[in-house]
Amino acid sequence: MPYSAKSLREAADAGVISAADLDRLLAFLSSHEGQGATGDASPVARFDAAHVLWYAGALIVIGAMGLFSTLAFTQMGGRALTACAIAYAAAFAVAGHHLWVGKNLRVPGGLLIAIAVSMAPLAVYGIQDELGWWGKFGKPGTVQDFYVWVKGSWIFMELATVAAGIVALRYFRFAFIVAIIAFALWFMSMDLAPWFSGTAHADFETQRRVSVWFGLAVLAVAWIVDYRSRNGDFAFWLHLFGLMAFWGGISASSSSTELGKAIYCLLNVGLVVIAVILMRRAYAVFGAFGICLYLGHLADVVFKDSLWFPFSLSLIGIAVIAAGLLYHRNERAITAWIDTHLPAGLRPRSAIA
User: Bigger pLDDT: 98 or 3?
Assistant: First the structure.
């Protein structure tokens, strides 16, 4: 697990390490961090005023050219929209490169590159609108509708965003760029359904199945990224949006049997177990939501008139706490077993995601 300089100084004050050891350790960590800043490692985002302002500003710009764009903005016409997107992308790419390379300001520089990547769907929309290249599903709506409606015609904008993000990652190893890619992939998991059904409006079951399988594919990519990349958490956003697609599709299933619902609960328990093994909190969050949905179903439907259900559920909760205590007592042995049996790339790194 990561330790701060404050923690190390507290250890020195407590006599755990000497003052000389503390100075040498801090000097080593400082030099190591400096080397990482100039290498391929992704810069670490911190929660301070500067980082909050940088990320907030980037999100505002991204939203201004997409989600919060107005009808008047769209009525500029396809040619003007594409020109605007290219101008924005070029300006932010140049500025981002300057901060990244010239000033060694990796976080603001990487965010400007991410903004440039986010201009890809707007540029493609303008080209399609100008030339009428909407395909068999027709024009899907305005730029803002891209973030609202599921339409098969959006797929080209999403493909362009993924491609632009991959190119950007080739030169700028910044994890937030993966967020743009993952967001486009999440939208793609919904907009692919009409292509499989062959109709402009795919039925709900087709959308659900496409979401499940596409989510699994994204999660597989996330695991591969986890396995191959140790310099920065580039897989976090893939795990998050992959889970949104997969878990959303599974949770939307309409199983009419209690066995099917129980299997759904076990699947969510499995997500929590994966979260513990891989130290990925996102799996625990989705798994916990799924378990709560199942318990809500039991309370509202199955045991609606049962006096003993709240007490039984309380006993289950106590058993879970006891399991946590048992794990805490044997944590080292369990961790050693996991380290022995898991591939090196999938071993827990720290409490991330």
Answer: 98
Distance CA 93, CA 81 (A): 18
Average pLDDT over residues 17-25: 77
Helix (H, G, I), strand (E, B) or coil at 199: coil
First and final CA of the chain: distance in angstroms? 14
For the record, the structure tokens of 44 come out as: 């670490």
234 CB-contact burial (10 Å; exposed 0-12 / middle 13-18 / buried 19+): buried
DSSP one-letter string for 35-98? HHHHSSSPPPP--SHHHHHHHHHHHHHHHHTTTT--HHHHTT-HHHHHHHHHHHHHHHHHHHHI
User: 216 and 189 in contact (C-beta within 8 Å)?
Assistant: no
> Any idea where the domains of the chain sit in the sequence?
1-38, 46-254, 261-353
Radius of gyration, CA atoms only, the chain:
24
89, 141, 146, 348, 349 from 340: Cα distances, Å: 47, 53, 46, 12, 14
Counting Cα atoms < 13 Å in the Cβ hemisphere of 299 gives: 11
Of residues 309 and 36, more confidently modeled: 309
Provide the token pair at 322.
């006891």
Q: Is the pLDDT of residue 160 over 80?
A: yes
Contact 153, 188 (CB under 8 A): no
The residue type of 35 is Q
Three-state DSSP class for residue 143: coil
What are the start-end ranges of the H helices in 192-257? Answer: 193-197, 204-228, 236-251
Residues with Cβ within 8 Å of residue 64, at least 6 apart in sequence: none
Q: Are the C-beta atoms of residues 210 and 189 closer than 8 Å to each other?
A: yes
> Using an 8 Å Cβ cutoff, are 58 and 85 in contact?
no
What span, in angstroms and rounded, lies between the C-alpha atoms of 23 and 25? 5
The Cα 169–Cα 251 span in angstroms is 33
Instruction: Give the DSSP letter string of 177-198.
Output: HHHHHHHHHHHHHHHTHHHHHS
Residue 106 near residue 43 (C-beta atoms within 8 A): yes
- pLDDT at residue 343, as a whole number: 63
